[in-house]
User: Which sequence fits this backbone?
């Protein structure tokens, strides 16, 4: 931590290191010791105190508890301290319970489906927005397609309900008008995932273009002009200029998404699902909420959550490392 | 966008095609909303007369909204949502800006350790049940504070604002020190105004985040008087919530159907988002462009 040399190490808002201005500056200036600097910054530590308190109480305390409760058998009314340690029992229980293994496979399946069907639409939309010749139309389109990103999953489910409900939903009314049978879309195991993932694409397609558009904005127009002079058509431009320019970003987004494979979007599923579709809908987050918290299986629920956090952290670190190696760009 | 200069046949047909495709995507974002609004304005009579197949109502009626606005439950939930969307972001901004100000001091002993202490919480969380147990121990369950304290610091926003503060020109700050301002004055008079774009962006984002949150209330709140609007809407839409107070309090008749009431509530939940959206677009989307979000 000791400052070395005379280089300026201060950040923008550090007080000037030359203060206080002394007239007798003959003596070579001495670097302050860590202790002196800490005293100089005592107000800063004081200011940071409430921030640190927040992190300790609302972030680190739950993390600490997750490592304790996952290895205990916590019963309501007994308290954490007086609950017995049970070693790895909770984890053994998880891996011996077919229902929980189903929950894990649902989680991975839904994440992968989201990736397969949600990955390309924003890339295509970004390329199209980039190529549009009308600036005004581009702006208006962007303004509109970003909006659903800011809706809650409840609002999105309200819209899904309006379209897919059996009695009053638009699609069933079209079916009925065409003389077809009505379909219980919202109670159907076959339809749950397509609707879930479709609604997810609908909500995020616009917002997800931003990262690609930022990369596309850096392409030099001269490249396109040169290509046009060489007689390249629109599709060749996409193939040889546009896509190569965003390929690193595409690789980056793909790798990072793989790192979040244990997070299948529990909040959306909780808004969308019902008991008729648990078999295909239940993921780690929904199970922890409904069974872990709702049925007081605190310890198994915490163990599930801990497993998700630890494996998730490893996956994110690995995918970030891979993304950095492949594209020179990571989350951090 | 440089392409508009080339006016060959393939270019023109390409432009026609992509305008069409983008237009379809834009319509698919808009039309469901139009349908929801249409449903909210349709009377029960018309629904039955036209066999529930109504896209644009022929005799639009505000009855559903009139009925909703008499609902004490709805007003109370709007009150909770507005309160959390004001108190929450204010609290978050104060703590987050102060944290960013402190951590922007490159000379601060232990700075890297404190940074790690903040950033680690983005990557690793305690999870639902441990968080619930903490709220239980703090006796915050079933209180308004359980909706705002868990997000009282925005770790990600802190990094963005810190980056902004670090880019403030040194001369400005040194001049301020020569004028003899205190650290607190420096923060309020120099740093906050200069980091205003980042602070506004993070503030807007937190306002919307609070307005659309419902899962925290589902977990922490039992008292229906403290339900935010999104949770009231969820209970109306979810067929497995039995004895939903809101649904029961809104008797339906020929003039207003349960469907219209649901859709009107969806619209009520959307309107505030559309109201702040222009500001969001101005501040946050520009912020995202700067590479702030992944």
Assistant:
């Amino acid at each position: 931590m000791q400052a070395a040399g005379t280089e300026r190490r201060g950040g923008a808002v550090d007080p000037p290191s030359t203060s206080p201005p002394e007239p007798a500056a003959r003596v070579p200036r001495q670097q302050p010791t860590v202790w002196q600097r800490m005293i100089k910054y005592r107000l800063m530590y004081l200011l940071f105190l409430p921030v640190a308190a927040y992190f300790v109480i609302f972030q680190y305390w739950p993390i600490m508890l997750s490592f304790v409760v996952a290895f205990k058998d916590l019963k309501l009314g007994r308290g954490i301290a007086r609950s017995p340690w049970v070693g790895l029992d909770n984890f053994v229980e998880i891996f011996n319970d077919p229902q929980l293994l189903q929950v894990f496979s649902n989680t991975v399946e839904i994440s992968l489906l989201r990736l397969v069907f949600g990955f390309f639409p924003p890339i295509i939309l970004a390329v199209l927005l980039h190529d549009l010749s009308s600036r005004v139309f581009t702006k208006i389109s962007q303004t509109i397609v970003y909006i659903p990103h800011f809706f809650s999953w409840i609002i999105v489910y309200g819209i899904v309900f309006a379209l897919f409900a059996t009695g009053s939903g638009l699609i069933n009314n079209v079916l009925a008008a065409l003389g077809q049978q009505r379909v219980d879309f919202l109670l159907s195991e076959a339809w749950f995932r397509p609707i879930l993932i479709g609604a997810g694409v609908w909500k995020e397609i616009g917002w997800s273009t931003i990262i690609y558009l930022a990369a596309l904005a850096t392409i030099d127009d001269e490249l396109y002009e040169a290509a046009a002079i060489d007689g390249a058509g629109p599709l060749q431009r996409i193939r040889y200029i546009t896509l190569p320019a965003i390929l690193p970003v595409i690789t980056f987004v793909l790798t990072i998404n793989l790192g979040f494979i244990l997070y299948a979007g529990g909040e959306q599923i909780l808004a969308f699902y019902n008991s008729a579709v648990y078999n295909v809908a239940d993921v780690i987050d929904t199970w922890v909420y409904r069974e872990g918290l709702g049925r007081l299986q605190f310890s198994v629920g915490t163990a599930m959550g801990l497993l998700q956090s630890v494996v998730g952290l490893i996956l994110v670190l690995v995918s970030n490392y891979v993304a950095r190696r492949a594209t020179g760009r990571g989350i951090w | 966008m440089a392409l508009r200069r080339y006016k060959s046949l393939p270019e023109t047909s390409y432009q026609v095609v992509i305008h069409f495709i983008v237009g379809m995507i834009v319509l698919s974002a808009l039309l469901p909303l139009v349908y929801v609004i249409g449903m909210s304005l349709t009377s029960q009579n018309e629904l039955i007369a036209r066999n529930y197949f109504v896209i644009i109502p022929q005799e639009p009626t505000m009855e559903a909204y009139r009925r909703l606005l008499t609902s004490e439950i709805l007003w109370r939930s709007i009150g909770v949502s507005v309160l959390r969307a004001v108190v929450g972001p204010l609290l978050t901004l104060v703590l987050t800006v102060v944290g960013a100000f402190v951590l922007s001091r490159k000379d601060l002993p232990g700075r890297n350790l404190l940074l790690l202490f903040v950033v680690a919480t983005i990557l690793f969380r305690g999870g639902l049940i441990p968080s619930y147990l903490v709220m239980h121990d703090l006796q915050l369950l079933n209180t308004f504070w359980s909706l705002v304290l868990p997000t009282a610091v925005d770790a990600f926003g802190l990094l963005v604002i810190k980056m902004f503060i670090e880019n403030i020109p040194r001369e400005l700050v040194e001049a301020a020190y020569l004028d003899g301002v205190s650290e607190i004055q420096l923060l309020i008079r120099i740093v906050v105004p200069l980091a205003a774009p980042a602070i506004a962006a993070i503030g807007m984002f937190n306002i919307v985040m609070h307005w659309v949150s419902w899962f925290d209330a589902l977990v922490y709140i039992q008292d229906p008087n403290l339900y935010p609007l999104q949770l009231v809407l969820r209970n109306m839409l979810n067929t497995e919530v039995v004895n939903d107070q809101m649904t029961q309090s809104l008797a339906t008749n020929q003039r207003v159907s349960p469907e219209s009431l649901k859709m009107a509530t969806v619209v009520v939940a959307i309107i505030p988002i559309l109201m702040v959206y222009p500001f969001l677009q101005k501040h946050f989307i520009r912020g995202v462009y700067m590479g702030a979000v992944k």
Notes: Chain A is about 65% helix and 0% strand. Confidence is low (pLDDT under 50) at residues 1-10, 18-25 of chain A. The domain at 89-327 of chain A is CATH 1.10.3720.10 (MetI-like fold).
